[in-house]
Specification:
- The chain is an alpha+beta fold.
- The protein has three domains: 6-180, Threonyl-tRNA Synthetase, Chain A, domain 2 (2-Layer Sandwich); 207-482, Bira Bifunctional Protein, Domain 2 (BirA Bifunctional Protein, domain 2), CATH 3.30.930.10; 495-595, Rossmann fold.
- Helices cover 36% and strands 24% of the residues.
- It contains 18 helices and 27 strands.
- The protein has an eight-stranded mixed beta sheet, with helices on both faces.
- The chain is globular, with a radius of gyration of 28 Å.
- The two termini are 43 Å apart.
Length: 596
């Protein structure tokens, strides 16, 4: 049983109290599961009653009553037969019996009781409900049983809880700010991207011209950074034969997250061959590494690609750019010896830190995911000695680097330990963005070798890394982090010229041409609106710099600047001086004032 933190115990207990309250108010409800999460808790319900926001108020009030009743959480260990009987007596066999079947033979079966409520649960919980003092129900969503669209859709109630009311209020304030910064809302206001589920498909983003600017600027940044770090760029196709993913081992572990195979008859009268859309780049990179002989003198080899990948995420889990089915991944694979591993893994982490500084990310945490020895051969490849060796190597690098990290068991990749990078936005919202993974298994599956200094064959270690994750998720994060007020180097539109009336439109066009000749992204607002309306439009679309163009500017040849991101450049400048200042800001990738 995983040891929970005190906050996880509190939230887990709140999930049980939520279920207790729902059964009091809606006795015919069937329960599925109710775990704690990183930000709170939820419980999935099957009820004829369709929950509303008004119901959340009633349920939350009932939860407060239960908390005041100071019910004790009592653990009961029972046999499998006793568990079946308990569930039937409690009237909760519809989903709970299936959850009972998930518990392996020989593993302890436990229930927790609080007041009149019992639940099949491994625990743990607070001792008494009176410890629940700061809880809030947040929303209702649909959730398929076991995340499978073929199953019934249940009603999921989300909530959060903290040890104190002050902490809860701080979190709720952050949520309100997060709503204002929602990347879907701002993306629409800035005309960055859209989705067309009916004609294109769910989770398949359409990047508009302005959004494409951000995509390409990030790719340019990554290519520059990786070139300096000794990476070589490769390109791979969007699909491959089934055999490739059988060799890599992805099919038995990952097939449910891949698009279904396409069967193609390649030779007349021949058997159909299965092709899969690429869900990951690594097998293709392994084939590139193995295409020519390698010596220890060639290593490390670092292969990088902004590869397009496709994953069949459940429709209920899709959420704007944060969870999509088609993605551009900032991917690379480093092939190295054991002796080189520490320096290479450390260099990847240093690259993360460089990006954090560039984007003004002040809070971050590395989640070091390890394996579960009891799940070798099932969830993880059956190589116990290599698991211990590589986990010790990663742990040593993290300790020596002084990087903040937490160790999380049972969440490694199937082929080795990994690091997931948690970052917090400017308003304190947590995101999972990047990954750094060790692979000691798959290179051997592909027969990848290099010749050692003793003229023997050896299998390299492989590091999978994606410091910027995917364009989609990273841009979604940046939209919310910057509230759409991107630094000038990343902004889709860097300067907008605002003629005070039609008389100055031609003059403004001439100024725009001078900026464009220097490579800047500049537009002219040629609408016949009043100046105030033009300013408001530019502010809504979050253009970092605006320049009013009128009689005074035309006569003097100067330019009057308003800025959303850099107050030091506001005011009147000569055209040449502002071009020079903006050039320096863009080339240096300077942060907006509030993020420095």
């Amino acid at each position: 049983m995983k040891q929970m933190t005190p906050l996880e115990e509190l939230r887990h207990s709140c999930a049980h109290v939520l279920a207790t309250a729902v059964l009091r108010l809606y006795p015919d409800t069937q329960l599925d599961i109710g775990p704690p999460t990183d930000t709170g808790f939820y419980y999935d319900f099957d009820s004829e009653h369709r929950f509303t926001n008004d119901d959340l108020i009633r349920i939350e009030e009932e939860m407060r009553k239960i908390a005041k009743e100071n019910q004790k959480f009592e653990r009961m260990e029972v046999s499998r037969e006793e568990a079946v009987q308990l569930l039937k007596e409690f009237g909760q066999e519809r989903y709970k019996l299936g959850r009972l079947d998930d518990i392996p033979e020989g593993e302890a079966i436990s229930f927790y009781r609080n007041g009149e409520f019992i639940d099949l649960c491994a625990g743990t919980h607070v001792n008494y409900t009176k410890k629940i003092k700061a809880v809030k129900l947040l929303s209702i969503a649909g959730a398929y049983h076991r995340g499978d669209e073929k199953n019934k859709q249940l009603q999921r109630i989300y909530g959060t809880a903290f040890a104190t009311k002050d902490e809860l209020q701080e979190y709720l304030t952050m949520l309100e700010e997060a709503k204002k910064r929602d990347h879907r809302k701002i993306g629409k206001e800035m005309d960055l991207f859209s989705f067309d589920p009916e004609n294109v498909g769910p989770g398949l983003a359409l990047w508009h011209p302005k959004g494409t600017v951000i995509v390409e600027e990030l790719e340019k940044l990554a290519k520059e950074t990786e070139f300096e770090a000794g990476y070589e760029r490769v390109r791979t196709p969007h699909l491959a034969k089934e055999k490739l993913y059988q060799t890599s081992g992805h099919l038995p572990y990952y097939e449910d997250s891949m698009y279904p195979a396409m069967e193609i008859v390649e030779d007349e009268g021949g058997e159909p061959v299965k092709y899969y859309l690429k869900a990951m780049n690594c097998p293709h990179h392994h084939k590139i590494f193995g295409a020519t002989p390698k010596s220890y003198r060639d290593l490390p080899i670092r292969l990088a690609e902004y590869g397009a990948c496709y994953r069949y995420e459940q429709s209920g889990e899709l959420m704007g750019l944060m969870r999509v089915r088609a993605m551009q991944m900032n991917d690379a694979h480093i092939y190295c010896t054991e002796e080189q591993f520490g320096d290479e893994f450390r260099a990847v982490n240093d690259m993360y830190l460089k990006y954090f500084e560039l984007f003004g990310i002040k809070k971050y945490l590395m989640r070091f995911s390890t394996h579960d020895p009891e799940k070798l051969g099932k969830k993880f490849v059956d190589e116990p000695e290599l698991w211990k060796k590589t986990e010790d190597m990663v742990r040593q690098v993290l300790d020596e680097s002084g990087i903040d990290y937490v160790e999380v068991p049972n969440e490694a990749a199937f082929y080795g330990p990994k690091i997931d990078v948690q970052v917090w936005s400017a308003i304190g919202r947590e995101f999972t963005l990047a990954t750094n993974q060790v692979d000691f298994a798959v290179p051997g599956r592909f027969g990848l070798t290099y010749t050692t200094s003793e003229n023997k064959d050896a299998t390299p270690l492989c590091i999978h890394r994606a410091p910027l994750g995917t364009h989609e998720r990273f841009i979604g994060f940046l939209i919310e982090h910057f509230n759409g007020n991107f630094p000038s180097w990343l902004a889709p539109e860097q300067l907008r010229l605002l003629p005070v009336n039609d008389t100055f439109k031609e003059y403004a066009d001439g100024i725009a041409d001078q900026f464009k000749a220097k490579g800047f992204r500049v537009t002219v607002d040629g609408h016949s609106d009043k100046l105030g309306a033009k300013i408001r439009r530019a502010e809504l679309e979050r253009v970092p710099y605006m320049a009013v163009i009128g009689e005074k500017e035309k006569d003097s040849g100067n330019i009057s600047i308003r800025s959303r991101i850099n107050k030091s450049l506001e005011g009147t400048h000569s055209l040449e001086a502002f071009i020079q200042s903006l050039s320096e800001e863009v080339e240096s990738r300077v942060l907006p004032d509030e993020y420095r």
